[in-house]
Amino acid sequence: MDLIKRASLIFLALILLGLIFIVLAVSIALSSFYSYRLPGIEGSSMEEAVVKLVNTLVDIAVRLGFLGITVWAGSLLIGHGIKGLKSEGKPYEGEEKRSGEKPESKMREEK
C-alpha cells in the first residue's frame, strides 16, 4: 500500500471519527432533552432551595459543556480530514506560491 492511499485512508478515518462524535453528541442531547424532568426545588428554608437550584444549574451547564467539547472535537477532526483530502493531490503549499511573492509573516517582519 503506497503512501498516498494510506494518507487518504487516514483522512477518511478522521472524517468518519468526527462524524461519529457529532452524531453521538446529538443523540445524547436529544435523549437528555426528551427524558429530562425538572427536579423539585423545595426546601425547608430559602438557603436549601437556592442550593438545590444552583446544583441543578451546574449539572445542566456541565452536561452542555461536555456536549460542546464533543461537537468541537468532532468538527476539528472533520476539518483536518477534509483539509488533508484537499491537499493530498497538491505537492506542498510553499511550492504553489510564485517565487517573487513573500509570505505574509516575512512581510510583517520587514516592516
UniProtKB/TrEMBL annotation:
The keyword Transmembrane helix applies. The chain crosses the membrane at residues 9-36, 56-78. Keywords: Membrane, Transmembrane, Transmembrane helix. Residues 82-111 are annotated as: Disordered. Residues 85-111 have a biased composition (Basic and acidic residues). This is Uncharacterized protein. It comes from Desulfurococcus amylolyticus DSM 16532. The lineage of its organism: Archaea, Thermoproteota, Thermoprotei, Desulfurococcales, Desulfurococcaceae.
